[in-house]
Design a protein that fits this description.
Helix content is about 35%, strand content about 5%. By secondary structure, the chain is mainly alpha-helical. The protein has a domain at about 45-85: Glu-tRNAGln amidotransferase C subunit, N-terminal domain (Histone, subunit A). It has a two-stranded antiparallel ribbon with strand order 1-2. A two-stranded antiparallel sheet has the order 3-4.
Amino acid sequence: MGEGARPRRRHGVFSRPGTTDTLAPLLLRKRPRLSSIIPVPEHSMAIDRKTVEHVAKLSRLELGDDEIETFTSQLARIVEYFDQLREVDVSKDGPMAHAAEGALLREDELARSLPRGKALEGAPSARDGFFRVPPVIDGGAGS
């Protein structure tokens, strides 16, 4: 491929074939913590009808009046919950490496699985002992 070849994606990094100018140095550099970039407000954000309509517009969603009212109250409750979480003292707790860290989990036990016929009974469409699903990827011509 010659000069001006289109960049291609390789291992999550864009590069030009035959060159070493990847974005890896930019992607791997140390980034500042999000909280140092975006200040965390001391008070909660008010969720009102106007806010929901704005988010719906940005998301290209058409919402009816009843849906806007529902989402307004649901999002307001979520924000109130975050306000409650903000009041919890976590100064003595260290960072976690994983959400399930220290969780008591049950041992895996070998058990019989659901028989195939029973599993397929609730399927909207089945054939030859398999679930039938609509195509997800368009294979183009010849598929």
